[in-house]
Amino acid sequence: MPTVKKFTELETWQLANELEKKVYEQLHAGTLAKDFALKNQINKSVGSVPDNIAEGFGRGGRNEFVQFLSIARASASELQSQLIRCFNRNHFSKDVYEELFELTDKVGNKIGAFIQYLKQSEKSETEFQNRVATIDEKRVTINEKPEMVHTTNAAKPLGAYPHARKVGNLLFLSGIGSRNSKDNSIPGLELDNDGNIIKYDIEAECHQCFANVKAVLEASGSSWNKIVDVTVFLTNMKNDFPVYNKIYGEYFTEVQACRTTAEVKSLPTPIAIELKVIALV
Fold it and tell me: Residues 79-127: pLDDT tens digits?
């Protein structure tokens, strides 16, 4: 393979970019345009494919590149599942569905072949060096034990524990709350001078919490539709359950993971919701 200086020169990225353009055309056409939850999931999945290829290339290390390519391939698989749902809901004609599904399959296969090439490569160019990610880098960071996963796309853990840990083909997430990964803020929360809660927004916290979970799943090489079990902790079951349960349905209806919801007196920070998740890798 000749030296590649820009991620846009990669055939895998070019093909993934073509897929993104074709799928985006369909997001605003027909009945899919009004299926907001599914449309949003598709937009995130298809965008994740070229974005992770680009970011992996930019890291300058072979191990890191493989990690991001794995995330891109997982997003392609997630997209295929969403395309099937579109066809089941009559959002796509058979021809459109088959074209997009086959193109997504081609992208996934290309990424898989590229991963194998990188694993077997003995090249010494910068983009293929066997460098290990450090905790200060932008997105996925892996410590000395490969089963431990951290990501800066979710709020930093409060103690000596990872965001997730892989055991065989299972992924165990630590408790994931609604703090924002960028500034540690909690959406909709207002505190008085003594740190007491004046008001909070359970709807905003649910969306942020689910976004954090998704970020950890993708950083682990898993995806949303591979969740198998969820334990949810609420600080106010009586007031918050109806809103939380409605939003949960928007995210989990197609996943059908097992679920337990429990009320707790408080959580380590003034958040109103936290999720404990088990998923397949």
Answer: 999 999 999 999 999 999 999 999 999 999 999 888 888 887 654 344 4
Dihedral of CA atoms 88, 90, 96, 100 in degrees, nearest 10, equals -40
**How far does the chain reach from its first CA to its final CA, in angstroms?**
30
Structural Rg of the chain based on CA atoms: 20
Kindly write down the DSSP assignment for every residue of 124-176, as one continuous string: -SGGG--PPP-TTSSSEE--SSTTEEEETTSPPPSSS--SEEEETTEEEEPPB
Tell me the pTM.
0.51
Task: Give the model confidence (pLDDT) of 226-262 as tens digits.
Answer: 999 999 999 999 999 999 999 999 999 999 999 999 9
- Chain centroid, CA 40 distance in Å: 13
Tokens of 189: 């929360």
Interhelix angle 237-252/202-219, rounded to 10 degrees, is: 40
Phi then psi for residue 93, to 5 deg, are -75, 165
How far apart CA 108 and CA 54 sit, in angstroms, is: 15
pLDDT at 216 over 90: yes
Query: Smallest Cα–Cα separation from 222: which of 75, 64, 89, 69?
Result: 75
Helix axes 62-88 and 202-219, enclosed angle (nearest 10): 120
Count of residues making up the chain: 281
Q: Which two tokens stand for residue 184?
A: 């540690």
Query: Can you tell me the distance from the alpha carbon of 228 to that of 215, in angstroms, rounded to the nearest whole number?
Result: 17
